[in-house]
Structure formats: structure tokens, C-alpha cells
Amino acid sequence: MANDNVSTYVTRLLCGTQGCLSFKQLHKEVNDKFGISCQALIDILRDGSKFIIAQGKEEKIPGFDLSSDSTIITKTSVRLCESYPNCDNCNNLHLCKYFIYGTCPNGNGGDKCASSHESHSAHNLAILRKNQLQDLEEVKLFQLLLQNDSSLLPEICPYYNKGDGEHGSCEFKIDCANLHVCQYFYRGDCKFGSVCKRSHESDPRKILAWRFSAEIASILPGIYKNKYMIDNSERTNKA
Fold first, then answer.
1. Region 2-74: CATH code
2. Model-level pTM?
3. Which residues contact 39 (CB under 8 A, 6 or more apart)?
């Protein structure tokens, strides 16, 4: 039970800091509250269903197999139901995705929306409890969903990131449904920085098309970076 309390606290903490923290920062916060050892926290973070550990570049902590600058990212298997509102019952959340984006034309109340704005409805609450997320505030839940549920984000165009010219080798150019941004910048490791020939800015037309709020649009690079590390970890584990 004690470990469950720490795990839940770590999830809430990470979701409140744009989905991730360095191990050093995380251990300080958790140790201040629970007086937990480095080893005990690492054991909790080894739960691959809830957390991803992205190895840092500094020397490993003596006696442990990770460095203090390793990034800890929060993870979940919870997804939005893509069939909703035409779904009676399933194991996915029944929520308006534009409510998550902060741009539902029916407002936050959702009284006139065909899709639910109740993140803790009876159906949703059962799923959240099953995944120990029932006490997560909405804004933190939405952060968690955005960086884990691929259906909530446009893909980064792989063809834009190849070839020359304004649109790389993408034949759809401005009509492409995917984001024309530097995939390495969104992974957090573009070596060209300000002189990169690929855009480091979110395409405003795609942001408008997907109807992200200005607040969500401003944190998209961080969301994509977290998503990349989660996806990369899953690919590595399957290899």
C-alpha cells in the first residue's frame, strides 16, 4: 500500500510538470514527502506500465544503473474511445477530445455537446480506478492522455524531414495532413539548432485544423518529446 501511495504521488507530480522530471528532481520531491530511499524509488519506477526511464548522459549514480539526469516520463495504457459517442461500453474513456484540447465549441460545461465532458462519469471513473488514476486532476489527466494516446496528436511527416526544399520530399506539401516540423527538434535532440533547415515551429494551419488551444499548442514540443521516449522504450522492449 505504501508503494501504491508513492506511485500515485509520482504520477500526479510528473503530470503536473508537463509529464516528466529528471530523476534527481523527482527523488528530491518524493524524498521530501515520504523519506524514500533512492533504491526504493527506482524499484517503483521500474513499473513499465506507469513509468519510462530515459537514461541520461551523466555518470551513473554509484551503486545504481541510472544517472541523476535520467528523465522519468509518466505512462498509461488508458486511451480515448475512438467509436464514442457510438459506443455502449468498452475499456476506453468516453470523452470529447476537443474538451481535452480546450477548444470544444460547446464550452467546458459540454451541456450541448454530443460527447461527454465528464472525465469522472460512472463509465470513466471505473476505468480510472482500475488504473489508479481516479484522483488525478483533469489538467493532469489530459497531459497524461496527450503524451500516450497517438489518436490525439497529428503525426510528424517523415517525408518533410527528408530531401531538399521547403517541404522536403513530401508530395502533399501544404495539403499534408501531418505536421511539417523537424522531427529531431520534437525529440529534443536537433543538432542544428537555430540554423536547422527544418521548422522548429508548430504549423499554425495544422494547429487550427486539430483545434488545439493556445495553451496546448505551446507545450506540444514537450508532449511530442515525451511521446517519442515512450514509443522508443516500447520498441526497444519488443526488440
1. 1.10.10
2. 0.89
3. 64
